[in-house]
Every structure is written in structure tokens, then in C-alpha cells.
Amino acid sequence: MRGRLVGPEGHSEEVELLVETAATLLTLPKDLADRLRVVPTRQQPVVTASGRREVWPVGEVRLELDGQQVTTPCFLAPGGPVLLGAVALESLFLAVDPVAKKLVPVEGFVGAARSSLGGVLWA
Fold first, then answer.
1. Residue 17, CA distances (Å) to 74, 91, 114 in order
2. Is the distance from CB of 89 to CB of 96 less than 8 angstroms?
3. Domain covering 2-105 assigned CATH 2.40.70.10 in the classification
4. Helix, strand, coil tally for the chain in percent (to 5)
5. Are strands 68-77 and 26-29 parallel, antiparallel or unpaired?
6. Angle ∠(51,52,58) on CA atoms, nearest 5
7. pTM here?
8. Which residues contact 39 (CB under 8 A, 6 or more apart)?
9. Is pLDDT at 121 greater than 60 in this prediction?
10. pLDDT in tens, 61-114
11. Where are the chain's structural domains?
């Protein structure tokens, strides 16, 4: 699926996104992150699809997808495709329809103390 990424200084690129619900964050290869001038703000331990444990930088980009926009954290990966992960999908209120192989809009949910959805609350 096609989308547009905008870095903190306004540099943008249209990109092909691979929907990957097993990825926590939007994931950008380093060369794309450099072109967008994404600034790493912290380091985060990750487990890669091959099971390797690594530490990757995390930054933020603006993601434009199907007329919606959201600023989302992103992993800056050594290489590979642009992955559209769970946090970005949820921030856009989108879910995956695996049968139709498309993204579908979902409603937001605000938990309540006696939620019928079984949420866990703590203070």
C-alpha cells in the first residue's frame, strides 16, 4: 500500500508500506530515515523477525495514509522494507482484514472501570 512519510523538517517521500502487524512500530530503513532527516530520540531493544536481539534508534515521522495523518514513532532499521506496524495502525484507527487483505476503519475505545471487554486497570 502507498503512503507518504514526512520528516521533522518537512522532507517527504511517497513509499510502499508493507503491513506487518507483528511489528510494534512503523519501521524505516536507515537510508530513507536519512533522506527524511528523522532525528533519533532514543534507543530501544528489539527482537527481529529472525530472533536476533538488537538495539535500534527510535524517531518520529508524520504518516499520511488514505487521507488520514498521524505523527508516529518509528524504528530506524539498518535496512529492509518500510513496515507499517501495530502502533501506527492503531493511531490511524485502522485494523487488518486478513481475508480481504485490506485495512478497515475501526472505532476508538475508551475503557471504563467495569468494562465488559475485560480490560485491566491500575493506578
1. 13, 16, 38
2. yes
3. yes
4. 10, 45, 45
5. parallel
6. 110
7. 0.86
8. 8, 59
9. no
10. 999 998 999 999 999 999 999 999 999 999 999 999 999 999 999 998 886 655
11. 2-105
